[in-house]
Fold these 2 entries.
Entry 1:
Amino acid sequence: MELLFHQFMDGLRATTWPEFMAVLTGIASVYFSRSANILVYPFGVISTAIYVYISFAGGLFAEAGLNIYYVIMNLAGWYMWSRRTDTGEKVLHITTSNGRDWQQTLLFFGGMWLALWLLLRKFTTSTVPLEDALASASAYTGMFLMNKKKMENWIWWIITNIVSIPLYFIKGYVFTSVQFIIFLALAISGWIVWYRKWKQENLMA
């Protein structure tokens, strides 16, 4: 336990300014997504763009590809969430997935996990291909569902955060692993907040 604590403190002292900024903007992004606030996206663009560099530098190649995807999807989500009808009403509202949605989501997730794992094993020097692929596949799925305002996006973020905490810690990005602990708490809270919003909107409909 003492060794783990010293490793944690050494990691914090070694935190670079890019990682520090990526963590702060990342936390801000998840905080705004929790309340379904469109500011999730500009903060998300900044954080994920920095993490593209950080992931490549740390040899987390699937995570690097994931963050490139994040940048693109943050820009797409920014547009999707900002759309309004002629009367000024938001086009997108929080909804839940039906059985068909779940089938498609699980197929997408399973396909992404397998494809990323095979790519990492064959074409990269990743030392944690299975875990790296799992974290990335669940995050790909979560981001896709969040842009559609599907409440189940939080389930995939919870999975992503649980896997990412040790993944970044063993690579020496201690401050980032702390970020994922915060993300995990926010994801659980986000599910509760979105559920309440969804329930309230359905009662008013």
Note: Helices lie at 2-13, 17-34, 40-58, 61-82, 99-123, 129-147, 153-170, 174-204.
Entry 2:
Amino acid sequence: MPGFSTRILTVVVGDHAYRLRVLSDRQQFADPDGHGERLGISSAQWSLFGQLWPSGRLLAEAMDRADVDGKRVLEIGCGIGLASLVLQRRGADVVATDMHPLAESFLAYNAALNALPALHYRQLRWDHPLPTLGEFDMLIASDVLYERGTAGLLSEVVRRHARQGCEVVITDPGRGHSGGFTRLLATQGFDVSESRFAMEDDDRAVSGRLLHYRRAAPPD
């Protein structure tokens, strides 16, 4: 017995229906060996990776439309991995990352559930450099600016893994920390455009934002 319960959720993105194994609710918790605690994941935070959040669905919809031809894409904080699954279905070169100890197994299960090849996954802590991960043409994430300090940590992930000509796509429900992140990316040469979208969270409408940062490659 894994110590937690799950359910299968079906969500339509573009022209495709994706089946996802998610945690049954936000009360699930199982950390018998203390692995999550050693990574800094509290019992209150433990279940968050295993939900489909409105920002995650918005990111998946954006990736269904994005120009990813010939680009290497990194998803930061993938959780159950819907955006990465959309990219995998499209044939993109995508690497999914997360810190949660169960993210890899959920991602593998969800890829198999949708008859997709296994995704390339790496465990990534934002405060621990991982040089072997390499550099990317596009970095994507959903609802990652949830605390004041995350803007600085995430900007350093971008610094380490963004190619000179790069895009960063963030979906955010308006938690109030995106301004600091935008200023930090401006120091790295990124410009930003913002689009607003209506999202549903627990059957209520909320306003979401898609932040698209771009940095041009130097001329040849």
Note: DSSP finds six helices and nine strands in the chain.
